[in-house]
Structures are given as structure tokens and as C-alpha cells.
Description:
CATH topology of the largest domain: Rossmann fold
Strand content: 15-25%
Number of helices: 13
Structural class: alpha/beta
CATH superfamily of the largest domain: Glycogen Phosphorylase B
Largest sheet: 7 strands, parallel
Helix content: 40-55%
Radius of gyration: 22 Å
Oligomer: single chain
Order of helices and strands: EHEEHEHEHEHEEHEHEHEHEHEHHH
CATH architecture of the largest domain: 3-Layer(aba) Sandwich
Amino acid sequence: MKIAIVSTPFVSVPPLKYGGTELFISHLTEKLIDRGHNITLFATGDSKSRAELEFLFPKGQWPINQMDELSHIAFSAKRIQGMDDIDIVHINSPYALPFANMLGVPTVVTLHHPRTQDFSSLYLQYPDANFVAISQSQRQGEVALPNMSVIHHGLDPNAYPPSEHPQNYVAFLGRLAPEKGPDSAIRAAQLAMTPIKLAGSVHWVDNDFYNDHLRSLLLKPNVQWVGEVDHVQKVALLQGAQALLVPIRWEEPFGLVIIEAMLCGTPVIAFRRGSVPELVEEGVTGFLVDSEKEMAEVIKNKLDKFNRAICRKRAVERFSTNTMVAQYENLFQSLVQKNRKETFSRRAPSHQAASIS
């Protein structure tokens, strides 16, 4: 198949540091190429991919600006319209739906966002689009749509070598934002009397949270903030951690960091919110808790005997790129075949009429 994949204009593919959507797109793109498909990737000019790269912006446009996103999508749609042999388009932004409807080929839309009324109303205007939720939790919380699948994200296990010998710390990895709960992670680690390392940055929208609630906690003993990390630093952090703490305060649709930790063999201790209960298997890949106190109890009492090899094995089974890409490939192929049949049936009557005359 010849597939057009439209990323965002905000971060390169793959991202150098922050960028969950772009990381997913990178793994999907490269594995589809491995499986023999021809991919045109619409991303930023500083992206690194074996796909044919098309871009409007030479580098990522940060911070996020919706006008940049619309310009990027309009550019992508115009270029796709000029390609006669594109079989299917895969988009990763709700804002691309009005443009995708004009392309004349099947469109798949992966939903990366939590539900908002604006997005849900937009989805209902395009019932012919094919939506992919990234978790059952996300699908159940979204408006009912006629064409919606669920495909969990997957990552390349080779990019996350396992570690059997953790060091004396727990980790937090992600934006230092209230919904991610870095303050809860610090308090839980302090209750457990265990050092904690935090990796991530403060986005401008979270400055008040940082100043009012987080800054003083980051100065406490045995708390180390290492800032934003690249892939190599991230893997090293996860490999060395006794556990990854995920005390989220929102209905997170997925959370790639969860499977990144599991692939390293590192258990995830997470609040029971959003997609977490369908990602974390109790006692196998991590532990589900409902409070900072419970999180601290797990840190103190359940990590010494945790089997990191089994954690890694189960994560590979459920969340590898092979598993994810096989599902996307099947979806793409079924939609392309359906479109070809419908196109043939529309043309058939005129051919029959011509032969009779």
C-alpha cells in the first residue's frame, strides 16, 4: 500500500525529547516500511525517517499554535491531492478531519486527545471517517461513532533494553503538570523513605503549579530533578529505577511512558485512572493504587521480589510495534479493499451500458 501519514508541526519525528504522538508515529512509520509499504510522512523538516518526507516547517513549531497546525494540515492535504496513487491517509489531529474529507481516499484518524465537547461534535460531522481510539477507556468515554477501533500503542522493544539490577531510587517521567502528579510522586517516595529522580519539563501553562506547589518539593532531600531527557537518558533512568510512579489526576487516554517502563522490566505503580487499569497488570507489570499512602506501601513492601524479566516479557507480548502495526495494517488493508470494491461497483453500470450499445 501507499500510505500518507500526517504528523504534527510541533515536534520532529521521532521527538528528540518530549512528544508522545510523534514517537508513536515514528514507530508506526518505520515498521510499516519494514513490512513493505510505501510511506509519505508529512512532518517537520528536522524529522528522521526512511519514509519520503514532506514538510512545510523546517523545524518543530513550539509552543503549540493552532494556526501552525492548520497551515501544516492544509499543506499536507494539498500535496496528497496531487498524488494519484495514495491508497489511504492516516491523520493524527482532529483539525485535519475537514481536509481529509476532500481527499477522495479512505482516512484513518487516531485519537490522541482526551474527550472535549468541541472535538466530539467535530467527529460526529464526519461519520465516514475511520477512528482509532488508543484505549478502551478512551473509546468508552468518547461519543458513539459508527467506525471506531481500539489499537493500543506499541514501541520497539529493541529500543528499551531490560535491566535486572535497579538502583536505589524510584522515577517520575513526564510533564511537570498538575494532571501528571509529580508532587504526589515526591510525597509518596518521601513516605517510603526512597530517593526519587524526576525527568521532565515545566510547560508555560503550568508555571503557577510549579511555583505554588512543586518548587519547594523539588528542594527536599533525596529528590533529584534531572530536567528534560533524550531517549538514551530516558532509558537509563527507567532501567535504573525500582519503579516508575504514575500518580495521574486525569483520565489519561494511554501514557506511552507506562509501556516504556514495562519494556525495561521496570514496574509501574499508578493511580487507577483513565487507561491505566487496562495497561498495568497487577503484580505482573506493576501495581494499581488509589492514594499516595498506598503508593508508598507498594514501594516499601512489593518491589524486592518483583520479577522484572516477566514484566518485560509481558510488555513485549502486549505492546510491541509488531503487535500494534499488524492491527493498523489489517485496518488499512480492509479499508483499501472496501474502497476499491465500492469504486468498481460505481463504475460497473456504465461499462455494462457501453458494451450493450
